[in-house]
Every structure is written in structure tokens, then in C-alpha cells.
Amino acid sequence: MIEQAELLWRRIIAKGTGANADFEVALNLQSGASDKDFQSVENQLGVTLPEEMKAMYRVHNGQAWNIGVAPFVRNLTLSPLDQVKENWVFLQEEFDPDDMEPEIDDDAIKPVLWSPKWIPIAENGGGDYLCLDTDPSSSGTVGQVLYFWHDWGHRSVEAAGLFEFIQKCMEEDEDDAT
């Protein structure tokens, strides 16, 4: 699985470098995460991290965010594991669903606006998070990818797993270029 993660990172970097020679530097990628790092996240969140996530993070432990950092896919920056924990705590404490109604048209997701079993691995800087679902409904898949929109109750599965999601994003970029 680590080989597939390394290949995806190379594809992300190669694609971005084709448009901007400084893309790899602008990603501000961190060195890979350790088993101790994964254990810390699992202990705090009370989840088992999906293997695809671990593989991606073994290569690069997310991106250090600063002004001008390039998104790794779409408009998303990949949060380092320490930031994943901080974002999860923030969402646990701050998310107030009282003003929203769930719009869940996908039976693979449990009918909730936020679940403590969602892992917020990436963000767009506007309060929205890309999450991995570790507690899907009976028709879902552990590790399925969904968006948590801070101001919209829509929840749907974007991909069955992180690798599929990244591949889908890469293909969207290719389709947009043609």
C-alpha cells in the first residue's frame, strides 16, 4: 500500500510542477509520520485509522500551512496529524447543528451532521473539512471520504477511500485541462 501512496504523491507533485515549477516547494510537505504519531491520533479520536490514510501520511505527514501554500488536490490542504487532532477537537466542541437540517441523500452515511468517528484530514481554510468516515452505515465502507460543510447540511460519499478520492481529483484536473 505504501507503494501506491508514493505513486500518488509523485503524481500530485508532477502534475502541479507541470503548471508551476515551484509547486513542490509550495506544497510545504512534512516528513512522514511514525507509528507513534498514528497511535496518538487513534487514542485521542477513539478510532482506527484507515490503512490508506496511514500510507499517505507515512510518505508525508500533511502540509505545514502558511500563506501561499499550494493545495494538494482541489482547494484542500492536507492537515498534519497534530492538526487533524486539533480540528477534530474544534469540531467536537464548536459544531452546533441547531441551525441546519441534514441533507443526506446517501445511505452509506449515518444520518448525522457531524460524527466523532469522522477524521478531518484536509481543509479549505473556510471551515470545511474533508473527512474519512470510520463509522459508516451498514451499506458504507470504513474509510469512505466525505465533506463536512460548516454551513450546509449536505453530506455525501465522495469516494470509497482516500486513494480513490485522490485519483478522482487527478482525473478531474486532467478533464479540466482538455
Write the element-wise H/E pattern from the N-terminal end onward.
HHEHHEEHEEEEEEH
The geometry reads as globular
Question: What portion of the residues fall into strands of 2 or more residues?
Answer: 15-25%
Beta-strand segment tally: 9
CATH architecture call = 3-Layer(aba) Sandwich
CATH class: Alpha Beta
Indicate the multimeric state: single chain
**Cα radius of gyration in angstroms:** 16 Å
Strand order of the largest sheet: 3-5-6-7-9
Structure notes:
This protein is of the alpha+beta class and 178 residues long. It has one domain (2-177): 3-Layer(aba) Sandwich (SMI1/KNR4-like), CATH 3.40.1580. The chain is 41% helix and 18% strand. It has six helices and nine strands, in the order ααβααββαββββββα. It has helices at residues 2-19, 23-27, 35-45, 51-59, 81-94, 162-177, and strands spanning 29-31, 60-63, 77-78, 103-104, 118-123, 129-133, 144-148, 154-155, 157-159. The strands form three sheets. It has a five-stranded antiparallel β-sheet with strand order 3-5-6-7-9. Strands 1-2 form a two-stranded antiparallel sheet. A hairpin with a 5-residue loop joins β5 (118-123) and β6. The longest helix has 18 residues, at 2-19. The protein is globular and about 45 Å long. The mean pLDDT is 90.
Outline the secondary-structure elements.
Layout: H1 2-19, H2 23-27, E1 29-31, H3 35-45, H4 51-59, E2 60-63, E3 77-78, H5 81-94, E4 103-104, E5 118-123, E6 129-133, E7 144-148, E8 154-155, E9 157-159, H6 162-177
Parallel strand pairs: 4-8
Antiparallel strand pairs: 1-2, 3-5, 5-6, 6-7, 7-9
